[in-house]
Design a protein that fits this description.
Radius of gyration of chain A: 37 Å
Number of domains of chain A: 5
Shape of chain B: elongated
Order of helices and strands of chain B: EHEHEHEEH
CATH superfamily of chain B: Winged helix-like DNA-binding domain superfamily/Winged helix DNA-binding domain
Number of strands of chain A: 22
Largest sheet of chain B: 3 strands, antiparallel
Number of helices of chain B: 4
CATH class of chain B: Mainly Alpha
Distance between the termini of chain A: 64 Å
CATH topology of chain B: Arc Repressor Mutant, subunit A
Structural class of chain B: alpha+beta
Oligomer: heterodimer
């Protein structure tokens, strides 16, 4: 009841504010009149009596203020009043307000974007029910995620810790829905995939374990919502329709729900097919092969009540069973668990490291922005010190004045925060629809959610209080008597002292942050440029890639190699084409295979005796020529290296040195593959990059495609002709051979996009942050320099009048900001060089020990300083002592 | 009459008690309360005139006083305060507790036999 009364009172006072104020005014007036009546009676004149009465009453404003506080219910009222007052004050200095709001909008926007990405990729689990208990299973010391199908079946059936273990493979699929056959990307999944993830279909039904009855027994297809929308125009009758998958009839069973985009964040499939149909989908039958690990990932929900440690122990016991039972194929497996969204340890650590670094940098930006705004506020407080003193003298309390400052700060931070958030939402939405590599269904699903909004607003509020707190001490120290007595000159003396002020420290910090950002973005850019021109072991310039999978058009076995040969011959006849080479998977193209090999002396071909795991490529005789890969020793393949001649290989330098001791020694020697085949080395080529730009040199071997079939086909077409014209010719030629074969056609430089993707992202992100840091530094230094010049104009005028040289004036006016700039830049440069070690994981050859980077940073900071102090310097130089002294 | 030099500073919290006591004899306006306090304390207490009002508003808000506009003896409009039932109760309690406190302190400070 009491609470209710008090609440009613508060609300009543809120609404009757004006009435209460009027009554209060009247009551106080009445008091003074009564007192004056008394004084008049004691013999004073009316006017004098009223004057005395007012003096005796004391500080009327102060008491009114206290009454308001006593009423308490006015809390909301006071806040509203504060806000109104602050808005008035801010409107009076639009330049300051706009600068502050924009600075904060940029900083908050940057943080919201980085956090949005961090949230979407790392914090937010996959969009499946109970994602918290979903783990992917990795094995071995290198956290390998891949398994062979028989091993997967054993894991699935023998473990006791998971509700169900599902598996999937990423595969391109030739999909013919009746009109234009095109390539789609799919997951080949185990029959229990949808059930294990508890996903319900949007339309129709999903396939289940019961639908599988051995290889190629389940010609069913589930399409994604996005693919249904874009390729079937939301047609609900699509369920039950028969379409051609690699020329095999498959029935569309259903459509997956909109929010389910596969189990790999970066890779949203167009469709799902049962893994038992692998032979029809990929053109190879590997399901029975325990040694070939072509399952991309195994994942499942851990049973309730099972701890990760128990699950790992359980899996390890299955692993040791596998090692014992199949010593030829499986070494004893040890397992670990990871989050499936980023392919566990494949991408997880790199993405996490990068995003954490970015978040730190973004945080530094925000800190720099706060430092900037803090000094702006401090400068304003100094300018307003007379006003503050006057208000204090008139009886205003210090808390009230501080509240005013904080209200201004929070208002600015909220407006800036909302602006920044809006910008970041737009950017994140854009980023979500971005397809960085056109050949792959790669996306960066980073749509913002409530958490992002909350974090952004929270950061805005915190920064508001942070920079609002800067001038607090200044205001608390204000002695109204001193200030009013001394006038403006007194404040100047107080502020130009040689002491190190908080503002100096803030500026140095801010410049250091900026230098860190500039350094790291320069290192990233340099690394990117260098990686574009580095030695890949092939020459991507002046070449086009025609990329397809023959099984998508129904080719198998010998028909495959015959078709491949026809394609090579046909493309070679195109006008202006110098050479055409075939390779199963183009190096640095985002895919790749390895094979375990043994030395020729090894008889016991078990996993522990493996001599090397070289990258493996099947190539045509002309590949090295078309790719411009240098043959160092021996010969390349000929068309006679086919099934009827002994198996041969070309290896790279590292392979030769690792297995045979030297390049010269390798020629003519033999090594063994897992199935015991002896392969003779006929040639050695230069080392190259095969999977990633940042990889260490690794052994590689090339096998003739006539001896080892490959359905994956990438034709390298070397020509100096204009790529567009050439592309038209290539398209026509391939269509003439088979118009049902889907394929991709890009220049080789475009083909490298996927390999360069991480460095591109890092460079752009760092570049943007670096630019923002630079902008903040410019405004910070500018603000400080301009302020110090304007405060010391009179002093400078006197110096000029006394005959100071231009350089002396400049030194007096700008010496301090420039000294701070030098200090901050040096600190930032050192920090930045330390920080770039982290970058080396993402950006190819990101080394801080690069004279160009060092020079670039120094130059950038100098330029920054010059830019920021130019206008204040002009102002200092144009001081006219006469005008100044007259004004005073 | 309010500027005598040997006036004592008010102890914190006692102004409210004085106000309650002053209006306990009948409705008074602000200035009247001040005069009444001067009268009952024989001008021994120093109160700045304006300081009275925050206290008055606080007591109204707490429901110990109620206020209404009326006409004063000088024929001026003024706001009159009077005790509510809760105010009367509070005055009794506060007076009792003040007397206990004052008695205790007086006893503690009075010269003891052994000190003499």
């Amino acid at each position: 009841m009491k609470l209710f009364d008090s609440l009613r009172f508060r609300i009543a006072t809120l609404f009757q504010r004006d009435q209460i104020r009027a009554e209060m005014e009247e009551e106080l007036r009445s008091h003074i009149q009564h007192r004056a009546d008394d004084l008049e009676r004691s013999g004073l004149g009316r006017a004098e009596a009223e004057r005395r009465a007012r003096i005796e009453f004391g500080g009327r404003e102060k008491y009114k203020e206290e009454i308001h506080t006593a009423l308490g219910g006015n809390l909301i009222g006071t806040i509203l009043q504060d806000v109104r007052f602050s808005l008035r004050v801010l409107r009076k200095s639009p330049g300051f307000t706009i600068a502050a709001v924009l600075t904060l909008a940029l900083a908050i926007g940057a943080n919201a974007v980085v956090f949005g990405v961090l949230n979407a990729l790392i914090l937010r689990p996959l969009n499946v029910p109970q994602a918290q208990s979903l783990y992917s299973v990795e094995h071995g010391p290198f956290k390998d995620v891949s398994y062979s199908y028989p091993d997967y079946l054993d894991l699935r059936d023998r473990n006791r810790s998971f509700d169900a273990l599902a598996a999937y493979i990423l595969a391109p699929v030739g999909l013919d829905t009746g009109s234009n056959p095109s390539q789609a990307w799919g997951y080949e999944v185990s029959g229990n995939y949808f059930d294990a993830l508890s996903i319900q279909p949007f339309l129709g039904r999903f396939f289940h374990v019961a639908d599988e009855h051995g290889p190629n027994s389940a010609p069913y297809l589930v399409i994604s919502y996005a693919y249904w929308h874009s390729h079937f125009q939301d047609d609900r009758t699509v369920v039950g329709r028969v379409v051609q998958v690699n020329k095999h009839p498959f029935t569309i069973l259903g459509v997956a729900p909109h929010e389910f985009r596969g189990t790999l964040l970066f890779f949203s499939p167009d469709l799902w097919v049962p893994m038992v149909d692998q032979e029809q989908v990929e053109g190879v039958a590997l399901l029975g092969d325990r040694a070939t690990r072509n399952i991309f990932m195994v994942l499942g929900h851990m049973k309730a009540g099972v701890t990760p440690e128990q699950a790992i122990a359980d899996l390890n016991s299955v692993g040791s069973y596998l090692g014992k039972t199949y010593p030829k194929d499986d070494a004893k497996m040890t397992f670990s668990l990871a989050r499936p969204g980023l392919a566990g340890s494949l991408l997880g650590p790199a993405v996490k490291g990068f995003m954490t670094g970015m978040m730190l940098l973004a945080g530094l930006i925000l800190l720099a922005a706060c430092a900037n705004l803090g000094s702006l506020f401090a400068a304003r407080a100094a300018d307003h010190s007379r006003e503050v003193a006057l208000r204090l003298a008139l009886g205003s309390s210090r808390t009230r004045i501080l509240r005013g400052v904080f209200t201004e700060a929070v208002l600015i931070s909220l407006v800036g925060g909302v602006l920044g958030l809006l910008g970041s939402i737009a950017l994140l939405r854009l980023l979500s629809t971005w397809q960085p590599v056109p050949q792959y269904p790669m996306t960066v699903p980073v749509n913002p959610d409530a958490l992002v909004y909350l974090v952004a607003l929270f950061l805005a509020l915190v920064s508001g209080f942070l920079f609002g707190a800067v001038p607090v001490r200044q205001i608390l120290r204000t002695n109204p008597y001193e200030v009013v007595k001394a006038g403006t000159s007194g404040i100047i003396a107080g502020n130009t002292g040689r002491r190190v002020t908080l503002r100096d420290v803030l500026l140095v910090l801010q410049i250091a942050v900026c230098a860190v950002l500039v350094t790291s973005s320069l290192v990233a850019v340099r690394g990117l440029v260098r990686s574009m021109h580095s030695d890949f072991g092939f020459e991507p310039q002046n070449a086009m890639l025609m990329d397809t999978t023959l099984s998508m058009a129904g080719y198998t076995g010998d028909r495959e190699s015959a078709m491949q040969r026809r394609m090579i011959d046909a493309l070679a006849t195109i006008h202006g084409v110098k050479s055409v080479g075939l390779v199963s998977q183009i190096p640095l193209g985002g895919g790749g295979s390895t094979s375990s090999i043994y030395t020729d002396q090894t008889t016991d071909l078990i996993p522990s005796k493996v001599a090397a795991d070289p990258a493996r490529f099947e190539i045509s005789p002309d590949y090295f020529h078309a790719a411009n890969t240098n043959l160092l020793e021996g010969r390349a393949f000929t068309w006679h290296d086919d099934k009827n001649s002994p198996p041969v290989a070309v290896i790279n330098q590292l392979f030769a040195r690792k297995i045979f001791g030297s390049v010269a020694n390798a020629l003519g020697k033999y090594f063994k593959t897992g199935d015991g085949t002896r392969i003779q080395v006929v040639g050695v080529v230069e080392d190259g990059k095969y999977y990633q730009l940042t990889e260490d040199p690794r052994p590689a071997m090339f096998l003739p495609f006539l001896q080892r079939h490959t359905s994956l086909t990438c034709l390298v077409v070397r020509s100096n002709r204009d790529p567009q014209l050439l592309a038209a010719d290539i398209r026509r030629t391939v269509r003439n051979l088979d118009d049902g074969l889907p394929f991709n056609l890009v220049t080789w430089t475009q083909g490298l996009d996927i390999a360069l993707f991480p460095s591109h992202v890092a460079t752009v992100a760092l570049g943007v942050l670096g630019l923002m840091g630079a902008m903040l530094s410019i405004t910070g230094i500018f603000g400080m320099a301009a302020y110090s010049v304007s405060k010391r104009l009179r002093e400078l005028g006197i110096r000029v009048a006394l005959g100071a040289q231009r350089s002396e004036v400049l030194h007096a006016a700008l010496g301090r900001p420039l000294k701070l700039l030098a200090l901050g830049s040096t600190g930032g440069l050192i920090l930045g060089l330390l920080a770039t070690r982290v970058l080396a994981f993402i950006v190819y050859q990101a080394t801080p020990r690069d004279p160009l980077v060092l020079a670039g940073v120094v130059l950038a900071m100098l330029l920054l300083g010059l830019l920021a102090t130019w206008i204040p310097a002009q102002r200092a130089l144009s001081v006219d002592p006469l005008i100044l002294l007259r004004e005073e | 009459m309010f500027l005598l030099t040997d006036q004592a500073q008010l102890l914190p919290g006692t102004l409210d008690l004085l106000i309650l006591r002053a209006v306990s004899l009948g409705p008074l306006h602000g200035y009247g309360i001040l005069l009444r306090i001067g009268q009952i304390s024989e001008n021994a207490l120093l109160i700045e005139q304006g300081a009275l009002y925050p206290g008055l508003f606080r007591l109204v808000r707490q429901g110990l006083l109620k206020a209404s506009w009326g006409t004063s003896e000088n024929n001026r409009r003024a706001k009159f305060y009077q005790l509510t039932a809760a105010g009367r109760k509070r005055l009794r309690e506060e007076t009792a507790s003040w007397n206990r406190l004052a008695g205790a302190i007086a006893a503690a400070l009075s010269p003891q036999p052994e000190e003499v």
